[in-house]
Amino acid sequence: MVRTKVVLLGSGFIADIHAESFRRFVPDAEVTAVYSRNIDKARAFADAHGIPAAYDDIQELLDKSDVDIVDICLPNDLHHPACIQAVNAGKHVIIEKPFCLSLREADEMIEAAKENNVLLMYAEELCYAPKYERVRAIVESGALGQIYMLKQSEKHSGPHSRWFYESKHSGGGVMMDMGCHAIAWFMWMLKDYNPVSVYGHYMRVYHDTDGEDHALTQLEFEKDGRTIICVAEDSWVKHGGMQDAIEVYGDEGVCYSDLFQGNSSQLYSLRGYDYASEKAGATTGWTFPIFEEAFNQGYPQELAHFVDCVRNGKKPLTDGELGRAVIAVIHAAYASAREGRKLALPYNSTAERPVDNWR
Questions:
Q1: What is the pLDDT at residue 225?
Q2: What's the whole-model pTM score?
Q3: Which segments of 268-298 does DSSP mark as H helices, in order?
Q4: Residue 130 to residues 259, 284, 292, 294: CA-CA distances in angstroms?
Q5: Which residue stretches of the chain have pLDDT < 70?
Q6: How does DSSP classify residue 21?
Q7: Sequence ranges of the domains in the chain
Q8: CB burial string 69-104: b at 16+ within 10 A, e below
Q9: The domain 4-125: what is its CATH number?
Q10: What order do you get walking across the sheet with 53-55 strand by strand?
Q11: Which of 49, 78, 61 is nearest to 7 (CA)?
Q12: Helix 103-115 / helix 320-339 crossing angle, nearest 10 deg
């Protein structure tokens, strides 16, 4: 079987998840090389995942590697230049969230992909997570009647790397880091609805960051005179492990779903053990070790879908246009938080970093 060749750009936490997902769950793909700005990290990553080649120069990787897909798992401010470089080399591209930092960057990335006739795929795993996809199918069947409100919350104690706290690299705080998941999921659930307004309330509680570490965002979606309220709560100040939950409210029912509860065991340990779940911290006392974390979060499913799109000429379910739409809402949400009022959508921002609309 001829497998689709993939190279990873990045050697951090999310690159680990992608590498494991490709290896274990996407048999049609083969990771042939990895890039890191630090060659020692690239080589260590390659050794850990059985990847044949390691590079510290993206152009050299593109020139020397037999590659169909470039999977970008780099800090946010590097998404745009890496994407442009890859699509200009004629490669299909997967981009981890968030898509980029500004609407200018988003437009340039989308246009470059079109000019080079390659796919630009936005890796929003909540649109592929099996538990959440089951909820979407139930909702679309009409089981809850007319939907009037959606909620999504993602909370933990803070990011893995220092660059997340520095807006020159991240573009913002927790809204940019995790609020993008909620916005994409709202759009995924309400495909026929248009976002018409946003209101954001953001705080800096205790992290050393020039962005926000706790965010509450409300969106209104409309279609044919009907309004659906969507509420996102995102936080870097919740201790005790990761929380990712959705709520769907209809006039004939309600659904609550938690990505991490229900797929885990309940365990008590005096000594502790190797790993419970993302952001869990200590493993002593009562913990909830999760089973197949990457699978439950939707990473293998999205990557398998992207590879299938490349192999069979399909349009990705989550593409650059979705990534751009999410960035547009994030920019407006920051501006709303600054002005203390609801803002109408669409809202065009020329800011290079979303958080610039807030400060």
A1: 93
A2: 0.92
A3: 293-297
A4: 9, 29, 12, 11
A5: 263-269, 273, 288
A6: H
A7: 4-125, 127-299+326-344
A8: bbbbbbbbbbbbebbbbbbebebbbbbbbbbbbbbe
A9: 3.40.50.720
A10: 53-55, 29-35, 4-9, 69-72, 92-96, 120-123
A11: 61
A12: 170
